[in-house]
Amino acid sequence: MMDMSWIASVEDPQPKRRIIYDADSYDTRFGDPYWREGNEEPESAWSFYTENDMGGTFEEYAWNTSVEELRDELATLNAYLSGAGETAGFPREKADPLEGNPIVASGGVGRWDGMHTGFSHFEDFDSLMHGADSPFKDCEIDRIWDENGHLFIDAHHHDGSVHVELLQLTDKGGEALEAMEDAWADEPFTAGGRSYSGSDESLSDFWHDLLNDPGLSSPPRYLETAFGRQPLEWDMDPRVIDFMNRMNEEYARLYEAGVTGITSPDMYDRYDGFQEGNLGFVRALVKARGLDPISSDREITALLNTYDAMFSTPEPEASRAASTELDPLDPADPLNAAPAVDPGMAR
Question: Rounded to whole angstroms, how far apart are CA atoms 102 and 217?
Fold first, then answer.
């Protein structure tokens, strides 16, 4: 029977967990192979440790490196979210209008009496991590990661675990938060263009709006904005990724040969690599091709039409909320010259 397990990774893909820091990687027995004791690969940490006088045990070397890496990652995140990235020594690919705005953390904190869920707001990232009301007080950070622009932090302490997602308020969201805090208890107030009665229920509505209205808060989009990573990356079957890479290489070859409908290098470069993160485009190609190689002139024409149409669409904006339930055109039909995808980006 033909193995079709790759279909689920296209029809119901999960965001790729893009690791920023992971303490487990530095486990010298079960962590990342790079950090495993006895790994004699030339580029491994073990080889570096044995060839250099690092002092102490290999476990101590791994632990110290983990602490340094975490400190550096937190400093870089703080610089990005506070707007100090230009002077912090890391590249800033795009301007970010949210820099310096307050942070909202939502998630769960484990305590002796169970898991408590909720949300809190902080003036800045440093207050979130080290302030009096920090959910990470007395914690060890386990991992920090990005999922299509959404930023998460996991940690643990003696009573349990902590799982938090970070959002950053827009200017309008910051004004809405100030309006809510300035309002008298149980008195009506207006914030973010909405009216609230001041009751407990209306305050819950306010926080729901603040967390879910893309005009009031936004995922940080850290890896995309600071380092130029793709806005979207999906955890797909390796066969799908290999297929996409082969199709991209084929189109690049045809582009270099001058037979595509795209003649502007700027237009081509703008989308170079973007197609891998565009779920609608991936679905369309895989649905039409079934992971088979191109085998006829008709299929080459279909490939050209599909890529030409996508590259001709306006440059996408990094929208805060767009559905992944796309209904792309079938690229197997050479007559499909209309744009084959919705260029919106979302988690």
Answer: 10
Residue 44 and residue 38 in contact, taking contact as beta carbons nearer than 8 Å: no
Phi, psi of 233 (to 5 degrees): -140, 135
Rounded to an integer, what distance in angstroms lies between the CA atom of residue 335 and that of residue 329? 10
Per-residue pLDDT of the chain (347 residues; tens, 9 = 90+): 546 666 777 777 889 999 999 999 999 999 999 999 999 999 999 999 999 988 899 999 999 999 999 999 999 999 888 876 554 445 555 455 677 889 999 999 888 888 888 889 999 999 999 999 999 988 999 999 999 999 999 999 988 999 999 999 999 999 999 999 999 989 999 999 999 999 999 999 999 999 999 999 999 999 988 888 888 888 888 888 888 778 888 888 888 888 888 777 777 776 655 555 667 777 777 776 666 767 777 777 777 777 787 777 665 444 433 333 333 333 333 323 333 333 222 22
CA distance 289 to 282: 11
Token code pair at residue 5: 């397990």
Q: Locate tokens 């033909």: which residue? A: 2
Q: How far apart are CA 14 and CA 38, in angstroms?
A: 35
